[in-house]
Amino acid sequence: MTLPLRIERLSSRSPHVAIVAAWTHAEWGHLTPGETPASRRVGLRDECGPAGVPSVFVALVDDETGGETPVGTASLVSDDLRVRRELSPWLASVFVPPEWRGQGIASRLVRRVEAEAAASGLACCYLFTPDQQALYSRLGWQDHEALNYRGEDVTIMVRRLNAE
């Protein structure tokens, strides 16, 4: 059974900005020294573009109170790895809270970002990951380069778009 979720573009005025910023800061804040939760919220709002690069997406499920609960996020940004600024754009900040993992949410978020990039006429997209190479490989991403970034071994991967 497929989880009934919606993937929506995150607006800078969305009530979900705070939780998405908290997730991404907790998960990857160590890669951006000097960043604070408050500065991450400001940065995230700047990434909430109307289309193309930059864009932020949030996966939502309806909750029992009639509201909606964010259950994941992913972004399309121009620069995600300071040492490889010549590569662009990037699938970034793919995150699903542990209690929601294993339900295909990350895969659906990745596909949404790929669709956004393709619709913008982009030929390819990059990402970097320390430990999710298998997930991205299953989704058609290919290894591009291995490197150590700020003390963490990561793999840069590339996805050619419109080449199904």
UniProtKB/TrEMBL annotation:
Pfam families: Acetyltransf_7. InterPro entries: Acyl_CoA_acyltransferase (IPR016181), GNAT_dom (IPR000182), NAA80 (IPR039840). Residues 5-162 form the N-acetyltransferase domain. It comes from the Bacteria. This is GNAT family N-acetyltransferase. The lineage of its organism: Bacteria, Pseudomonadati, Pseudomonadota, Gammaproteobacteria, Oceanospirillales.
